[in-house]
Amino acid sequence: MARRSMETATRTLFITGITSGIGQEVLRLALADGFHAVGVVRSEAQKQALLAAYPERLALHVADLRQRDSVYVVAEQVNGTAFSHILLNAGYAELGKLHEITHESMADMLEANLIGHTLLLKSLLPQCIPNRTRLCLVSSLAARMPGRNYAAYGMAKAGLSYLAEALALEYPALRILCVEIGGVATPFHQKCGSGFSVRQFKTQEETGKRLYKALLRRQGFTTLYWDWTLARWLFLHFRAPIIAARRRFHV
Fold first, then answer.
1. pLDDT in tens, 163-180
2. CA distance 90 to 63
3. 132 neighbors 173 (Cβ within 8 angstroms)
C-alpha cells in the first residue's frame, strides 16, 4: 500500500486546454486515476469553475496563450517544476482564406498553437530530463494535409509537429509523443466557424480516452484512429497527385 501511495504522489500532469473538448476529458480521467494536475486556463472565471468541480489535486494558472506577456508569467512560475507527464493540448483557430483573416487572428493562431506552448515547454524541459517526463504535443492532420481556409492554423500545427520531431533528436532520453488528430465533435469547431458538420466527427469522450491512454504509454507519432492513420499515410505517399486533384476539382 505504501508503495502504491508513493507512486501516485509522483504522478503529476501539466496540461493546457482543459476548459472544454478532449483536454477536459483527459483532465477528468487523470484526476480520477490518481494524478495531481497543474493546468493553464484563460480566465479567472474558468479557474474558479474548475476548482469548484475538482477541489483536490488540481492547481491552476491563468494565462491567455495568445498573450505572450501572460505566458511569460506562467513560464516563470513553473520554471524548475518537475512533472511526470506534460500534455500541451490547447488550440485556437479562425478559418478563412489567408487574405481574409485579420493580422490579429493570424498572430493569435501562431501564439496559441505554437509559440505559447513552446515558451512553456522551454521552462519545463530542464526538469523533464532527470524525471524522464512523458511529453505529448497535440497537433493536427492539418499539419500534414493542407487545405482551403486553414493555412495559418495548419502552419502553426505543422510547427508543433516539427517541434516534436526536433525534440526527439535533441533529447533522446525523453519519451515524446505527437498526436495529429482530425475532426472531433467539440466546441472548437463552433468557435472557429468551420461550418463542418460534426455528425461524422469522432466523439469527445472516446478521443479523450484514447489520448489519455496514449499519453501514458506511447511515443513517436500517432493519430489515435485507424482511418486518420490511413488518410495521413495516403497523403504523405501520394501528396502531389492528391493536391493536383484537389486544386482541379476545388475540393
1. 999 999 999 989 999 999
2. 12
3. yes
At 99, is the secondary structure helix, strand, or coil?
coil
Mean pLDDT of all residues belonging to the chain: 89
* 186 pLDDT tier (thresholds 50, 70, 90): confident
Number of domains in the chain: 1
Q: Are 109 and 61 in contact (CB under 8 A)?
A: no
Q: What is the CATH number of the domain that holds 221?
A: 3.40.50.720
State the distance between the two ends of the chain, measured CA to CA, in whole angstroms: 58
Element containing residue 180 per DSSP (H, E): strand 175-181
DSSP-based helix, strand, coil % in the chain, nearest 5: 55, 15, 30
State the residue range of the domain holding 62: 2-249
Contact between 3 and 76 under an 8 Å Cβ cutoff? The reply is no
Rounded CA gap, 156 and 92, in Å? 10
Label residue 9 by pLDDT band (50, 70, 90).
very low
